[in-house]
Amino acid sequence: MLWTIVVVLLVLWALGFAVHIGGGLIHVLLVIALIVVVVRLLQGRRVV
């Protein structure tokens, strides 16, 4: 589910460069999604 959101945000971000829809909102959502992915990857590696 998380990877689906990341892929959708990446597609919208790329479209934003071409069409200029969404403006800064897409960039903010992309940054949030990347932070969540990094946190989940770090937590997955710390399993005791």
Spell out the blueprint of helices and strands:
Blueprint: H1 2-19, H2 24-45
How does this model look, in words?
- α1 (2-19) packs antiparallel against α2.
- The chain has two helices and no strands.
- The protein has helices spanning 2-19, 24-45.
- With 48 residues, the chain is mainly α.
- The longest helix has 22 residues, at 24-45.
- The two termini are 24 Å apart.
Global outline: elongated
End-to-end separation in angstroms reads 24 Å
Task: Give the percentage of residues in beta strands.
Answer: under 5%
Encode the helix/strand succession as letters. Answer: HH
Query: What's the overall average pLDDT, rounded?
Result: 74
State the helix count.
Answer: 2
Radius of gyration: 13 Å
**What is the number of strand segments?**
0
SS-based class: mainly alpha
Describe the biggest sheet?
A: none
Low-confidence runs (pLDDT<50, min 5 residues)? none
What is the share of helical residues?
Answer: over 70%
Offer a concise description of the structure.
The protein is an all-alpha fold and 48 residues long.
Core attributes:
Lmo0937-like, 83% helix, 48 residues, mainly alpha
